[in-house]
Each structure stands twice: as C-alpha cells, then as structure tokens.
Write a structure and sequence with these properties.
Number of helices: 4
CATH class: Mainly Beta
Order of helices and strands: EEEHEEEHEHH
Number of domains: 1
Strand content: 15-25%
Largest sheet: 5 strands, mixed
Number of strands: 7
Radius of gyration: 14 Å
Length: 129
C-alpha cells in the first residue's frame, strides 16, 4: 500500500507480520476493503521496522490506538506471517480467526498468498502496488 506523509510525500508500506490475499485471489477484494475501511478518515501512525528487498517500509499501522495489522488477522482478512520478533499476538489472532471461521477462514481450505502467486504468475505483490 502507499500512504502520504505529513509533508505530502508518498511512502510504500508493507504491513509487517501479515500476508493478505492478492488482488484477484479469493478474499482479496474483501481484504482490501477491510483495510481501506480501517484507514478511512483516520490519522495513521506507522511503526517502522526497516525495509524489505523492494524498499518498502515494513510497518505496523495504528489508527486511534488500534493495531490495524492485528485487526486484519483477527478478523480473518490476512494470515499471520511468522518470523518477526514480537509478533506472537498475530499468531494467536490467526488461531482464533481460524477457530471462529472468520473472514477467509470461512473457506475450509484457503490458499495462502504465496501458494496462490506460485500458481498465478505475474501476480507478485510488489508489481501490483
């Protein structure tokens, strides 16, 4: 996603710790709509954690003291992307979303974005942003 900073500059951001469905993938539109609704009209604070290989800022997003990354996983609109220190809350949120069959977990066998991209060449995350 791309955000504007307080000076009007643009910053490409990768939501750290989560992996959301791709554009064209099942639940992709719903996931994007959920994220847009969470960010609409609010002041977004980004807790940066470095940059990825595509030079996107890795960050957790906060709106009104609400952790947007965590909300996306808890509501079933993204997978927890493990491997980042301090993101155990995301794994717990995914487990609860799976159990509750929320969002994409209503599908008994949702396909993770990495698996979907492997079968749909040309749909890599950086190219579509």
């Amino acid at each position: 996603m791309t955000c504007r900073d307080e000076k009007g500059g643009r910053e490409r951001i990768r939501l750290v710790g989560i992996d959301a469905p791709e554009h064209g993938q099942p639940y992709g539109d719903e996931s994007r709509a959920a994220l847009a609704a969470k960010l609409a009209g609010g002041v977004v604070r980004v807790e940066g954690r470095g940059r990825d290989q595509h030079q996107r800022l890795l960050g957790r997003l906060w709106v009104d003291d609400q952790d947007v990354n965590l909300q996306m996983v808890a509501e079933g609109w993204a997978w927890a992307f493990t491997g980042f220190a301090g993101d155990d809350d995301l794994e717990a949120a995914e487990a609860a979303a799976r159990t509750g069959r929320r969002g994409l977990w209503a599908d008994p066998h949702p396909l993770a974005p990495s698996q979907w991209r492997a079968t749909h060449p040309g749909h890599s995350a950086p190219a579509r942003r």
